[in-house]
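Dear support,

I submitted the protein below through the web form. The confirmation email said the job was done, but the results page showed an empty box. After a refresh the structure appeared. I'm attaching both so you can tell me whether what I see now is the final result or a partial one.
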Amino acid sequence: MEWQTGPLQMQLVDEGRESASAAERGALQLISALDCNQAGSEFKIERVLLILETHKRRPKQLMIINILLSGIAAAAAIYLIIAIHEAGHYMAGRWVVGIPFSEIAIVMTEVPQHVALRGKDEWVSPQDFERYGDLYQRYDPELEHLTVYVGAGLVLQTLGVALGAVALASAGQAGIGRWIVRLSLIMTLFYLLYDLVFTWKRGAPAGDVSAIGAVSPWSAMVTLVLFFVPHGALLFGL
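What the results page shows now:
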């Protein structure tokens, strides 16, 4: 890149290109407007080149920052959606099934997050299907409330996502609202795939829908409808 200067003008000769960038053209217009006779040797072309190079790097830096912030926002949203989902199981366990406060707990520090039931000496997760089922049946021996207990996670997740998306849309942030709805859908689709695969491999329920389906396939279908229909309506209605 070669700079040519005159008393009241500067030209950029850029080999292999027919035109300069918008930033370069703007800088040239500014330089051309200067009275170079007055500026003399005090005006350094290197400073202009440095400014131009800084402006070229800035979009890349902003892109990296935006990616990092988007990742943090997505992680926070995922964590919140999972917390709401698990709160649904917890509330149904406490107030529908009647599990005492000291015998049930939300565990958010393990993967997958879950609602644990207290065993004799330790907390038991739903991954230990047989022990978890035995502990649950201490409070619901006929499994009358199992569909409510298991389905409450997806139902409360749907309600929480719907309220959040509508509130954001009302505040003029419909795009963020739709993003949260999509995130909830994608998370749940992956969860359903996990449920399907591991239920088939283990020969025992591995997730919410398979657990409900083991008791009542009809209830499993109703739970899925209560999840997907509101999500679809929000996605296309906001």
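Response: this is the final, complete result; the empty box was a page-load delay. The first strand starts at residue 2 and ends at 5.
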